[in-house]
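Record type: monomer structure entry
Structure origin: computed from sequence
Chain ID: A
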Amino acid sequence: MNITIPVATICAALILAPAAAAAPGDDVFLRDVANAGIHEFPYPLIQEGHSICHTLDLGPSGGGYVPDMADRMASAFRQWLTHQQVADLIVASVVAYCPNHRDALNF
């Protein structure tokens, strides 16, 4: 009987505890990269998505910058991702995390 009360209390706490929520945009981002055939661990992908947006925040937008970034990333990730997957990763990052850079996607 002493074991039943603590177990019941723990079970109730687990059931009633709020579920951990993903950060805004994470679900959309992970869905889009999965649709692109990228099935790596979510946390590093999410970090990479934010890093892409940070890079876009620092650099010039529009004409030529995103294709150059895609070429550099494709070279760096060539063992894991195709050039198309890198482009899809950039698009998913912008859609989910930095829609203010949508104009840079004209490549």
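Annotation 1: The first helix runs from residue 4 to 16.
Annotation 2: The chain is about 65% helix and 0% strand.
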